[in-house]
Design brief:
The complex is a heterodimer.
Chain A (H helix, E strand, L loop, with lengths): L3 E4 L2 E4 L5 E7 L5 E7 L5 E7 L6 E2 L7 E2 L9 E3 L8 E8 L8 E2 L3 E5 L1
Parallel strand pairs in A: 2-11
Antiparallel strand pairs in A: 1-3, 3-8, 4-5, 4-9, 5-6, 7-8, 9-10, 9-11
Chain B lengths: L2 E3 L4 E5 L4 E3 L2 E3 L5 E8 L6 E7 L6 E3 L2 E6 L4 E6 L8 E9 L5 E3 L3 E6 L1
Parallel strand pairs in B: 2-12
Antiparallel strand pairs in B: 1-4, 3-9, 5-6, 5-10, 7-8, 8-9, 10-11, 10-12
Classes of the chains: A mainly beta, B mainly beta.
C-alpha cells in the first residue's frame, strides 16, 4: 500500500491552463521532492523542501512553483502550461538524514497540447 | 562535486542469464550513501538497497547481489538467473553526508526476454 500519493495519475491539458499536481505522504517525512522525468529517462530535481515553509529550487530550471504549508502536502503548480512541460512528474519524500532512501509516488504523466 | 555514471544505457538478456549493472560514482566526501532503485514499466521507483561508505561488505538478497568497491568507486548490481519481471529501468544514486540532495545516474534499461 502506497504511503505517498500523487494525483492525478494522467492529465491532458491545453496550452495556457493553470494546473496543480498534488502530492501527499502519510509517513511524517520532513523532506519532500519533485522530479521531472521523461519516461524511463534521467530524473531531474526541480524542487525540494526541508519542511514546512521551506522550499528550494533544484538543479533543473522549472517554471513551476511549490508550496509546503503542511508537512504531508507538497503541491506543484504550473501557472501557464506549455507543450514543453509535457513530461512525467515524480514526487518523493524521505527522512531528514542523507542515509534515508526516497519513497516515490507513482507519478503524474502530464501532456500539454 | 558529486556525480553518478551508469554507462550502460540498455541491456538485453534472455531469461535465466546473469546480468550486471554498472555504477561508478564521484564524491569528495568521506561519508556518503549509495542506493539502487528499480522503476518497472508501471513507473513507480522502488528502493532496493542502501550502502554507506564505511561498509564495503557485499550483500546478497535472493537473486540480487551488490558489489561495493571504494577503490574503484563502483557499486555494481548483479541479477542472477534473470526473469522477465526484472525488466525495468534501474537507477544508482548517491547522497553525501553534508548534502541534501540525492543525485541519480541516468539509469540502465534492462530487457529480459522469455
Amino acid at each position: 500500500e502506497a504511503d505517498i500519493y500523487q494525483t492525478p495519475r494522467y492529465l491532458v491539458i491545453g496550452t495556457g491552463k493553470k494546473i496543480t499536481l498534488e502530492c501527499s505522504q502519510t509517513m511524517g517525512h520532513d523532506k519532500m521532492y519533485w522530479y521531472q522525468q521523461d519516461p524511463g529517462m534521467e530524473l531531474h530535481l526541480i524542487h525540494y523542501s526541508y519542511g514546512v515553509n521551506s522550499t528550494e529550487k533544484g538543479d533543473l530550471s522549472s517554471e513551476s512553483t511549490v508550496s509546503r504549508i503542511r508537512t504531508e502536502h507538497f503541491p506543484l503548480t504550473l501557472e501557464s502550461a506549455r507543450p514543453s512541460h509535457t513530461s512525467q512528474y515524480l514526487c518523493a519524500s524521505s527522512e531528514l538524514g542523507p542515509y534515508s532512501p526516497l519513497h516515490f509516488g507513482n507519478g503524474t504523466r502530464l501532456t500539454v497540447t | 562535486a558529486q556525480k553518478v555514471t551508469q554507462a550502460q544505457t540498455e541491456i538485453s538478456v534472455v531469461e535465466k542469464e546473469d546480468v550486471t549493472l554498472d555504477c561508478v560514482y564521484e564524491t569528495r566526501d568521506t561519508t556518503y550513501y549509495l542506493f539502487w532503485y528499480k522503476q518497472p514499466p508501471s513507473g513507480e521507483l522502488v528502493f532496493l538497497i542502501r550502502r554507506n561508505s564505511f561498509d564495503e561488505q557485499n550483500e546478497i538478497s535472493g537473486r540480487y547481489s551488490w558489489n561495493f568497491q571504494k577503490s574503484t568507486s563502483s557499486f555494481n548490481f548483479t541479477i542472477t538467473a534473470s526473469q522477465v519481471v526484472d525488466s525495468a529501468v534501474y537507477f544508482c544514486a548517491l547522497s553525501e553526508s553534508g548534502g541534501f540532495k540525492t543525485i541519480f545516474g541516468a539509469g540502465t534499461r534492462l530487457f529480459v526476454k522469455a
